Amino acid sequence: MAKAVDALDAFDVSYETTPMGTTIEADEIGELFAAAQAAHEAVDGDRVSTFLKIDDKRTSDADAASKVAAVESELGREAQKER
Q1: Coarse DSSP helix, strand, coil percentages of the chain, rounded to the nearest 5 percent
Q2: What is the pTM of this model?
Q3: Domains of the chain
Q4: In 10 A of CB 15, how many CB atoms?
Q5: What are the pLDDT tens digits along the chain (83 aa)?
Q6: Contacts from 12-17 at CB under 8 Å and sequence distance 24+?
Q7: Run of H or E residues at 71
């Protein structure tokens, strides 16, 4: 996984890695595809699975961080809890 995440630095994308995956944001769909392909190819192994889900809301410029901020604003606290 570290090699996949490291490969993203060569592209004009922002990203956040979580325990369940990496969210990648780009202004251009081609840049997103190129970054995802590079991340996929960076992983060593005889089998690599990459799942790509695209959320393209064309009527809004909101980014992933603003979506989390909206949830936290509604909660009145951070949207995470450690055990």
Answers
A1: 40, 10, 45
A2: 0.82
A3: 2-75 (3.30.70.930)
A4: 16
A5: 899 999 999 999 999 999 999 999 999 999 999 999 999 999 998 999 999 999 988 898 889 899 999 999 999 999 988 88
A6: 14/63, 16/64
A7: helix 64-75
